């Protein structure tokens, strides 16, 4: 871990402390990955906005939690047109698990992103996925090595950035999948203009994904107009605030469809 913890929000600092202590896998994995770029192209050809819908039971920035079966949620998202899925495997703050990812990847035929806070190479070996998230801010000095290590295992590494400096580091590390997080992990504030500032600085051959703060179809259109090849959407699809006392509720299929059809309809 190569970031200065005192410039992070307390919730993020706690997540990183847990990540540093979490063990990796016992054996090196080898993945035959489903192509994210091909999934995006297929969505475009079908008239859908390429959306990575996120199975996120809870998070430090949302109220409530969903207790639905994660496989059922994932299948509903795919039915709503999601081009790919993101599955939280961080257990302590997001209620995720590698077991959830394994079950979901077995049940669906779209690419699955492992969403976690990985800080060491051995943590790549915890579970097979198609895409793996590497957050530039948290692995500064090790980013190029982790990108290479992920590819050696068959993963498609998605490098998350928030600043121009992090984008430059991601490109220097050879990243061709870049996620621009509109949320500042220092203050946890969200600004969609973050993507709009960074997108013009990425080469045309880099696949750009807008992350965080996409809450309406209008937000989706805004990010697409700014150059987003895909959108990562979690809370607005999971609708944690609308769950009932049993931790269920909120039609994730309909919520997903609102965004995958955002360029043809305002609401579904």
Compile the SSE list and pairings:
Elements: H1 10-21, H2 36-45, E1 51-55, H3 70-79, E2 84-88, H4 91-94, H5 98-107, E3 112-115, E4 131-135, H6 143-152, E5 156-161, H7 164-172, E6 177-181, H8 193-198, E7 207-211, H9 217-225, E8 230-233, H10 235-238, H11 252-260
Parallel strand pairs: 1-2, 1-8, 2-3, 3-4, 4-5, 5-6, 6-7, 7-8
Helix pairs in contact: 3-5, 3-11
Name the CATH superfamily assignment.
Answer: Aldolase class I
Alpha-carbon Rg, integer: 17 Å
CATH-derived architecture: Alpha-Beta Barrel
Give the overall form. Answer: globular
Structural class: alpha/beta
Portion in strands: 5-15%
Number of strands: 8
One letter per element, helices H and strands E, the order comes to: HHEHEHHEEHEHEHEHEHH
* Count of DSSP-assigned helices: 11
CATH class: Alpha Beta
Biggest sheet character:
8 strands, parallel, barrel
Task: Trace the largest sheet across and list its strands.
Answer: 1-2-3-4-5-6-7-8
Number of folding domains?
Answer: 1
The CATH topology corresponds to: TIM Barrel
Question: What would you say this structure looks like, in words?
Answer:
- With 268 residues, the protein is of the alpha/beta class.
- It has one domain (5-23, 30-260): TIM Barrel, CATH 3.20.20.
- The protein contains 11 helices and 8 strands.
- The chain has an 8-stranded parallel beta barrel with strand order 1-2-3-4-5-6-7-8, surrounded by 7 helices.
- Helix 3 (70-79) packs across helix 5 and helix 3 runs parallel beside helix 11.
- The N and C termini lie far apart (43 Å).
């Amino acid at each position: 871990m190569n970031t200065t913890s005192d410039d992070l929000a307390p919730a993020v600092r706690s997540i990183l402390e847990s990540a540093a202590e979490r063990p990796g896998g016992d054996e090196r994995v080898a993945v035959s990955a489903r192509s994210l770029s091909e999934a995006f192209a297929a969505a475009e050809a079908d008239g859908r906005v390429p959306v990575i819908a996120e199975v996120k039971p809870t998070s430090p920035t949302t109220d409530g939690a969903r207790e639905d079966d994660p496989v059922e949620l994932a299948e509903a998202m795919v039915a709503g047109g999601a081009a790919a899925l993101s599955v939280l495997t961080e257990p302590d703050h997001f209620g995720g698990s590698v077991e959830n990812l394994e079950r979901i990847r077995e049940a669906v035929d779209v690419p699955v992103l492992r969403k976690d806070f990985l800080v060491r190479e051995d943590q790549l070996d915890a579970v097979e996925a198609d895409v793996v998230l590497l957050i530039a801010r948290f692995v500064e000095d090790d980013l190029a090595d982790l990108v290479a290590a992920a590819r050696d295992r068959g993963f498609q590494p998605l490098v998350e950035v928030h600043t121009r400096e992090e984008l430059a580091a991601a490109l220097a590390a050879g990243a061709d999948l870049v996620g621009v997080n509109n949320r500042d992990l220092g203050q946890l504030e969200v600004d969609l203009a973050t993507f709009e500032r960074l997108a013009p600085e990425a080469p045309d051959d880099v696949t750009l994904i807008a992350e965080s703060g996409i809450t309406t179809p209008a937000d989706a259109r805004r990010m697409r107009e700014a150059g987003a090849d895909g959108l990562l959407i979690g809370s607005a699809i999971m609708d944690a605030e609308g769950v009932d006392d049993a931790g269920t509720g909120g039609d994730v299929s309909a919520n997903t469809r609102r965004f995958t059809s955002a360029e043809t309809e305002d609401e579904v």
